Structure to design on (748 residues):
C-alpha cells in the first residue's frame, strides 16, 4: 500500500495529479529555460551540435530520470517517503560505512540547491532583455528582490498559495508544449534527433562534445529533488504526471532545437536565449510572467525540500538541533528559520557573485552528480537486500548508471574552475558539519556507561519511601538512551542518589526511540516496580518532531484511566493547595571536560560537535519539554584524560 | 570475542548478576571481578563494545572512586577470549 502525507496519493484523481505537477516538477520542469542556451553558448550553430545535443538530452532524461528515478528509485519508498536519508534509513543495517556516502550525497544535494533558485529565477527574469527597450535592464536587483521575498514569506507557510502551484505549473508545461510544437511544425526533421546515433556521434566527433555533457546534464538535475518529494504525492501520481511532463519537456527542447536549425549554419546566439526566441513577440511579457512563476514554484520546492532534508538530518543525528516551526496544520510542512537564513544568504551571494544565469550554468550540476552517484550506490543495496534482486542484474544496473554518472562527473569537473568550486566548497562545509555531529555524538555515546537497572530498584524504592528526605517531585522523569528495559545510564542513577537524593513517588525512565519509518508514534510501558519504577519507550518516526512532555502526560493519563497506575497521592501529584500537576523532568547534558587531551582530529571533531551543540537547540527544547518542568544537570565527558602530569611536591610540612 | 557475541556474555550476566566473572583475555591474561556496567558504540544497537569490571569492594559505589574516576578496569569486548561465571561452565566464541 502506498502512503503519503496528504493522503492524496492513495487514489489517483485530477486534483492529486495537479498537486504532483505543482510540487514535484519545479526543478526539472524549469530546465528548458537554460539547458540549450548552456549547450550552444558561444559556439556556431550546426547540425551535429543541435541534433547531437538534443539526442543526448533525450537519452539522458530517458535513462537518468525515467528509468533510474521514475522507475527504479521510486520503488525505494520508506513508508511513502523518499530522499537520500529515507533511502539510507532503509539500507543502513546492510552496510556499516553507508553513512559516509550518505553524508556526502546529502551535503552535495544541499549545496547544489543553493544555485537552483538563482539560476531558475535569473533565467526567467533575463527574458526581459528580449523586450525592445529593456535590453540593458539590470536583472540582478530584480532577482534578489524576488528571491528575498520568497524567503521572507516562508515563515507563513505555503498552504494559502500552494493551491495555485498545480494550475500554474499546468499552464507552464502547456506553454512549453505549445511553443515546442509551433517550432517543430516549422522544422519537423528535428524528430530525427531522438536517434541515439546522433548522441554517439556528438560525443565522439564534435570538438569537446564530451565536455558539453556538463550542460546536457542540467536537463536532469531535478531528478534527485523529484525523489526527495516522493512523500508529498506518492509514486503513482508521480509516474502518471511524468509522462505528461516528459512529453512537454521534450517537445520544448526539440522546438528550441528546430529554431536553432532555422538560424542557419554558423550563426551565433550572441546572448539570445532560444527559450524566449521561440515565443511570438506579442507573447513575451505573459511568457516571462509564466516563466518567473514557474521559477518561483521551483525555488519553493527546493526550499521546502531543504527544510525536510535538514529536519531528517537532525532527527538522524547528522545535524545540530535547531528550531523547527510548523507554519500550518498540513502534516509535514515545516519551516526552519536558521536554514531559511542560510539558504537566503547563499542564494543572494550566488546572484551577486555570478550576476547572470550563463555564469551560474558553469557552476551548476557538479555537486549533484555526486548525489546521484551516492543514490545509485545506496539504491544497489536496496535492490539487493530489500527487494532481493539478482546480484548480476543489480551489478549491471550499477555498471550502467555508474558509467553514465561518472561520465557526467568527468564532464562536470571541467566546471570546477569556472564556479563549480563554490558548490564543492559549500558541500565540504556541510560534510564537515554532518560528520562532526555524527562522529561527535558517536564518541559521546561511546563514553556512556550503562548499568543494570534491576540492581538499583530496591534502593530507588527505599528512597521513595524515606520520609526523612524532602520530596523532590511526585513524578520524576529521566530521558534515557537505553533501549533495553533492564538497563539505564549510570549517570541517571548517580543523579538520583548523589548529593541531595531525589525522592519521588514514581520514577519514570523515558526512552525516545527514533524509528526507521517516517511517521511512527507509539509507546510501550514496562513496570519494574509496581507504581514506582516505570520504563516507557516512545517510538517516534524520523520525520516527527518529538513532544516528549505532551506524549508523557498522555501516557500517564491513559495509565491512570486504565487503572494501571494507582497512587496513594492524587495521581497527577496535585494537592488541595496546588492544582497543577507535579512532573519534573531531569535532562543530563554532557560537556567536554577540561581534563581531556586529544589527538588533533578527535579534538577538532569533538570541539566542533560541542560548539554546534552549545549554539543549537537545548536538549529540553529539542525533546519538547516545558522549561518550568525541567531540571538540567551537567556531566563532564572525559574522552582522554591528560596522562602525563609532572606534578612535584616541594615540601612535606603537612606530615 | 566479536562484538556481535557480546549478547552471550550479557545474557549470562543477566542470569547470574551477582556472580563473580572470570575473563580470559588475549595474551593469556586472566581477570576476575564483577561486571559493573558496559559501554556501546551506539546506544541504539544491542552490541556491547566494552565491559567495566571491578573488585568486590567497589561494587556498592557504582564502580567509581572518591574522586569520580572509574575504579577497576574497562575491558574491550574484542579482547575477551573466554568467560566463566562462578560455578558455571566456560563460554567461548
Amino acid at each position: 500500500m502506498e502512503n503519503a502525507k496528504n493522503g492524496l496519493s492513495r487514489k489517483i484523481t485530477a486534483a492529486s495529479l495537479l498537486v504532483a505537477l505543482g510540487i514535484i516538477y519545479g526543478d526539472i520542469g524549469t530546465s528548458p529555460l537554460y539547458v540549450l542556451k548552456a549547450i550552444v553558448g558561444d559556439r556556431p550553430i550546426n547540425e551535429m551540435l543541435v541534433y547531437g545535443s538534443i539526442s543526448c538530452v533525450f537519452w539522458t532524461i530517458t535513462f537518468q530520470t525515467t528509468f533510474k528515478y521514475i522507475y527504479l528509485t521510486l520503488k525505494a519508498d520508506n513508508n511513502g517517503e523518499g530522499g537520500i536519508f529515507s533511502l539510507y534509513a532503509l539500507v543502513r543495517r546492510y552496510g556499516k560505512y553507508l553513512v559516509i556516502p550518505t553524508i556526502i550525497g546529502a551535503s552535495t544535494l544541499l549545496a547544489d540547491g543553493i544555485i537552483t533558485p538563482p539560476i531558475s529565477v535569473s533565467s526567467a527574469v533575463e527574458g526581459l532583455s528580449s523586450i525592445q527597450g529593456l535590453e540593458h535592464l539590470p536583472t540582478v536587483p530584480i532577482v534578489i528582490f524576488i528571491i528575498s521575498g520568497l524567503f521572507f514569506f516562508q515563515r507563513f507557510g505555503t498552504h494559502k498559495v500552494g493551491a495555485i502551484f498545480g494550475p500554474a505549473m499546468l499552464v507552464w508545461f502547456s506553454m512549453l508544449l505549445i511553443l515546442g510544437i509551433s517550432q517543430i511544425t516549422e522544422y519537423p526533421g528535428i524528430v530525427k534527433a531522438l536517434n541515439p546515433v546522433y548522441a554517439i556521434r556528438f560525443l565522439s566527433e564534435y570538438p569537446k562534445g564530451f565536455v558539453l555533457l556538463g550542460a546536457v546534464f542540467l536537463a536532469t538535475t531535478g531528478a534527485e529533488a523529484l525523489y526527495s518529494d516522493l512523500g508529498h504525492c506518492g509514486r503513482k501520481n508521480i509516474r502518471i504526471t511524468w509522462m505528461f511532463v516528459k512529453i512537454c519537456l521534450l517537445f520544448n527542447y526539440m522546438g528550441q532545437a528546430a529554431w536553432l536549425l532555422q538560424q542557419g549554419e554558423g550563426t551565433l546566439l550572441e546572448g539570445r536565449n532560444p527559450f524566449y526566441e521561440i515565443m511570438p513577440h506579442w507573447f513575451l511579457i505573459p511568457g516571462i510572467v509564466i516563466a518567473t512563476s514557474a521559477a518561483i514554484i521551483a525555488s519553493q520546492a527546493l526550499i521546502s525540500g531543504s527544510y525536510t532534508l535538514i529536519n531528517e538530518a537532525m532527527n538522524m543525528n547528522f545535524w545540530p538541533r535547531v528550531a523547527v516551526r510548523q507554519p500550518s496544520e498540513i502534516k509535514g510542512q515545516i519551516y526552519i528559520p536558521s536554514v531559511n537564513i542560510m539558504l537566503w544568504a547563499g542564494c543572494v551571494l550566488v546572484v551577486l557573485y555570478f550576476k547572470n544565469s550563463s555564469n551560474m550554468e558553469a557552476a551548476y550540476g557538479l555537486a549533484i552528480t555526486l548525489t546521484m552517484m551516492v543514490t545509485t550506490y545506496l539504491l544497489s543495496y536496496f535492490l539487493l537486500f530489500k527487494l532481493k534482486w539478482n546480484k548480476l542484474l543489480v551489478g549491471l544496473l550499477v555498471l550502467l548508471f555508474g558509467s553514465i554518472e561518472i561520465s557526467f562527473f568527468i564532464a562536470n569537473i571541467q566546471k570546477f574552475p569556472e564556479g563549480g568550486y563554490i558548490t564543492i566548497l559549500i558541500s565540504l562545509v556541510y560534510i564537515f558539519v554532518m560528520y562532526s555531529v555524527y562522529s561527535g555524538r558517536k564518541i559521546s555515546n561511546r563514553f556512556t556507561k550503562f548499568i543494570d537497572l534491576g540492581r538499583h530498584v530496591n534502593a530507588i524504592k527505599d528512597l521513595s519511601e524515606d520520609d526523612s528526605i524532602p520530596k523532590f517531585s511526585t513524578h520524576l522523569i529521566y530521558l534515557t538512551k537505553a533501549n533495553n528495559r533492564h538497563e539505564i545510564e549510570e549517570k541517571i542513577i548517580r543523579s538520583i542518589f548523589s548529593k541531595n537524593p531525589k525522592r519521588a513517588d514514581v520514577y519514570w525512565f523515558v526512552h525516545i526511540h527514533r524509528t526507521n519509518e517516517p511517521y511512527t508514534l507509539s509507546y510501550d510501558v514496562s513496570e519494574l516496580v509496581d507504581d514506582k519504577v516505570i520504563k516507557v519507550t516512545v517510538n517516534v518516526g524520523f520525520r516527527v518532531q518529538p513532544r516528549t512532555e505532551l506524549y508523557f502526560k498522555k501516557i500517564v493519563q491513559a495509565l491512570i484511566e486504565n487503572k494501571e497506575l494507582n497512587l496513594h497521592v492524587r495521581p497527577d501529584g496535585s494537592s488541595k493547595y496546588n492544582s497543577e500537576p507535579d512532573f519534573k523532568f531531569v535532562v543530563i547534558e554532557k560537556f567536554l571536560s577540561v581534563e581531556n587531551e586529544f589527538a588533533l582530529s578527535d579534538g577538532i571533531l569533538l570541539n566542533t560537535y560541542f560548539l554546534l551543540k552549545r549554539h543549537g537547540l537545548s536538549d529540553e527544547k529539542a525533546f519538547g519539554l516545558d522549561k518550568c518542568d525541567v531540571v538540567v544537570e551537567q556531566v563532564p565527558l572525559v574522552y582522554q584524560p591528560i596522562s602525563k602530569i609532572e606534578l612535584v611536591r616541594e615540601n612535606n610540612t603537612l606530615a | 570475542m566479536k562484538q556481535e557475541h557480546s549478547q552471550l556474555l550479557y545474557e549470562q550476566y543477566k542470569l547470574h548478576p551477582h556472580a563473580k566473572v572470570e575473563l580470559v583475555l588475549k595474551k593469556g591474561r586472566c581477570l576476575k571481578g564483577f561486571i559493573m556496567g558496559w559501554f556501546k558504540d551506539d546506544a541504539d544497537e544491542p552490541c556491547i563494545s566494552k565491559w567495566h569490571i571491578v573488585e568486590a569492594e567497589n561494587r556498592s559505589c557504582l564502580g567509581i572512586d572518591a574522586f569520580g574516576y572509574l575504579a577497576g578496569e574497562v575491558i574491550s569486548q574484542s579482547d575477551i577470549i573466554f568467560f566463566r561465571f562462578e560455578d558455571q561452565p566456560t563460554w567461548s566464541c
